[in-house]
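Q: What would this chain look like folded?
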Amino acid sequence: MQRRRWRAVWILGLVLVPLLVLVPVALAQGDEVVHLTGELQGDQYAGGGTVVLDRGAVVHGDLLAAGRTIIVYGTVDGSVMAAGTRVEVYGHVGHAVRVAGGSIPGEPALILAGRVDGDLVAYGTEVDVREEASVGGNTYAGGGTVDLGGTYAGDVQASGSTVTIAGTVQGDADLGCSTCKVREGAVVAGGLTYTSADPAQITGIVRGHITQLLPEAVGQTPAPQRFRHTATSWITGLLGAWAAGALLLWLWPRAAAAAEESLRLRPGHSVGWGALALFCVPLLLFVLLVLSAVLGLLVRIWPYGASVGLVVLGCYLLALVLSQIVVGYTIGRLILCALKWDRVPGARFWEMLLGVLLLALAGLIPYVGGWFKFAVVLFGMGAIIVAAWRARRRPAPGTVAGEGAAVAG
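A: My prediction, written as structure tokens:
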């Protein structure tokens, strides 16, 4: 059960993180309606106010879509990866469906009424799987309200305020909810494990063992106070990152542009050097301080060794802080370039503000957020190192300035 949980977390993270970048681009298209018709070879990428795969249309590959409303009537031989305020799947999907839905009050963020041969990964304010739907693999769903009708050939893992099983689950069911229901007519062929403070409302059939787990205590702090503390910390961190990014772009625009260029053009080098620095610098600091302490007893060089160690530590901590700004600046620049807004006055500041905001939002994703922040540090710190090394090797500083100015726009 634990292995399935972590698999769901990783899949959900891989869905949401790229879509945090794609959705703003798609939503900027306004009310544009994009229709996909006929037979389409290879993977398809679509974005707009509304994206529709028409009836009779066939995608011989994967479908990646972002917009306000995504509707799939046709057939997709591969997987569907979609994000919008409302995602509807009525057709046949040959592999997996991985979707993230936004929020329209009173309406489902996800509607599944078609056939999915692979896994279903769905995250939204409301998830509604209709009676006629079927899922050939495992199901991972999360939202405020999750209604699971239809037929599920594999296991089901779902979490939300209210989770209802109204269909047939041929595997096990693992639920985490305030209100858990197995409706009359529903069948769970395997076992049912649910985490809730209240007993599940079971009027259907569960053929396996039923296990209730109590949620862990969250401490004595009232929920509103915890929320205010978390929100205040998040907003303070975001404003601090914005201020540091604005200061960096104002005082050292060429250095920021060089780091952005390194990350954009050499992501492999960046993540490699970032991993090396992240793990080796603390070890180097430890060795340096130990050697300084030992040699200081003999030749009295402790103050010098300690000073070098403090300088290295300061640079290391500064790179950690700037890594978020470099990655955010790169993401924001890619988005504004895609929208052709990179020539507006003060574009580099808007790019930084947008990118850092998206990173801060991605960091809020449960479980995945911490790993995402770790990846940001790797890429950002590595980009800073690569940019510094390239600047050191260039014989003419004017070349760096020229390129930095070109990148900064």
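Residues 1-30, 396-409 have pLDDT under 50 and may be disordered.
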